[in-house]
Specification:
mainly alpha; Arc Repressor Mutant, subunit A; three-stranded antiparallel β-sheet; elongated
């Protein structure tokens, strides 16, 4: 899922960038790409600028599946929040800025680990 998330805007992404963003070994990403390609979710092609490098692109099928996943996730979170009392919903709301900073930190490619 995370590999597809890197490709979600539909633009080609260099394989090297995918490995960096996911913090995975190139061989691991290659195996993921092989499996996703076999399922028709990812296309691998030679780079337009460097024929020694590969670019990855999410297929329309993958983008549709990501959209369906995101909608299901939004619905699940909305429904779960609706079951909380007002004080708990407010606590979640108050935690959002810190959680957004946490996500930004985790997505920082300069971060080690």
């Amino acid at each position: 899922m995370e590999l597809l998330r890197v490709l979600q805007d539909g633009s080609p992404v260099p394989m090297r960038e995918v490995t960096t963003r996911l913090r995975l070994a190139p061989s691991t990403v290659s195996n993921l790409v092989r499996n996703l390609s076999g399922s028709g979710l990812v296309k691998r092609r030679a780079s337009g600028t460097d024929l020694r490098s590969a670019e990855l692109v999410a297929s329309p099928k993958a983008l549709t599946l990501l959209g369906r996943y995101d909608e299901a996730s939004r619905t699940a979170v909305h429904d779960a929040l609706a079951e909380l009392n007002a004080a708990d919903r407010k606590a979640v709301e108050n935690a959002l800025p810190a959680l957004q900073r946490l996500v930004a930190s985790l997505e920082n490619p300069e971060r080690e680990g």
